[in-house]
Amino acid sequence: MKATLKLDPSDQISKIDERIYGSFIEQLGRAVYDGIYQPGQATADKNGLRKDVIEAVKKLNVPIIRYPGGNFLSQYKWEDGIGPKDQRPTKLDLAWQTIETNQFGLDEFMTWLDKVGAKANMAVNLATRGVLPAAALVEYCNFPKGSYWSDMRRKNGHKKPYNIKTWCLGNEMDGPWEIGQMNAHQYGHIANEAGKAMRRVDDSIELVACGSSSMDNPTFGDWEREVLDECYDNVDYLSLHRYYGFYNDDDPNDLANYLGKNVDLNQFIKGVVAICDAEKAKRKTKKTINLSMDEWNVWYHSNDQDAKTKPWQKAPHLLEDIYDFEDALLVGSLLITLLKNSDRVKIACLAQLVNVIAPIMTDDKKVWYQSIFYPYMQVSNYGKGIALKPNVEVPTYKSREFDAVPYLDTIATFDKQNGEMTIFAENKNQKETMDFVTSLRDIKATKVIEATQFYGYGVKEDNRDGKMKLRPLKASLDEDKVSAELQPLSWNMIRIKVK
Question: What is d(CA 267, CA 264) in angstroms, rounded to the nearest whole number?
Fold first, then answer.
């Protein structure tokens, strides 16, 4: 099979906001306790933060991390997680029916963020609390000194303000599973009022309003329209959440459909953009609402086990999907889809980061990387600068849900500052190799810096044995063309030095 990618440096999608490579830590399962925070563990520092996890997160180069939820957020009182630990209350987490000790809270999270080199995407509870607690949280985090909450932060040992810039106004407020579910008018109103109050504390912050928790919800579309009608002027982004699963293991042909789920994500994004722009046109305003894809991933492996987990445990094993090779291929393709929409998707958070539907897993002794770690690591580290429009010539296939899925999923990014262009390419064909040629127009390439491939594993194979790795890919540069042979079911990256 042959495939061609034509690139023109003047044909650009957008400058990439690196927050598109964000992730998510929720007070859920073992994400925090026995994940990033485990006092007494062999690598734990004086604050109980696992150094081995910190090093693993650094490899992913995650720029922003959403916290503390997630469903957990809608019943959370942030004040419970600050101050002396022996005075913090142990409470029932109604969202996940577990025991929350509050030994890890806001200040511990900010300390951990500093160690991994990331910024916070902080969420406020608008479901069971409201406007003033949200404004107080901004005061605690961002106000320098001389007020009740800013002085409380200083008393707790953090003299400098955190200066958190990105804030989520609640979580999945349309979901019937949420504690404090609202209709669109109710939520849009409180988001608007909370946004006003929060900005009066710090007018430099950016705010994310809740879009539909799923495109499959019957209120999808109407929810977005009604919410924006209430709070358009006081928010900057609208959120999207999307998870994918392989639900038909008995049908081997369904793998083709599973690997085509990026088509669904692209349609979802385009649909929400259209709704935002319709509201913009109605208002006759110059302000554009961009998107925050602040929850996305594969999630289905752990469903049966989670249903058997007894409630009211501390840090139970919940949502611990063990990802296989086909999941890594889909995650890679979803990352490419986000880049293809980087003109409007400015923030995205792989949900989640450690132990809970995560690329990084831990036990008491070690850290190990899941299959999805590898494409995520490569795109977050090398998908910099400008996303170039991919003009692709390649055959397509029809699957159960999708009429035309390209066998090749690809995009290139151009990092002018470092003089690099990076090509990400995935061959979805299950049997045929792909002769892949990238045609460079007005791009003066001088050499191939690095070329790797991730392939050769069974589609149901995972990385619990630690044997998965990136392999060398033979890629040749001939004047204005880059050529490589892509193996069946492979994720590939080619980095090129350019003038």
Answer: 5
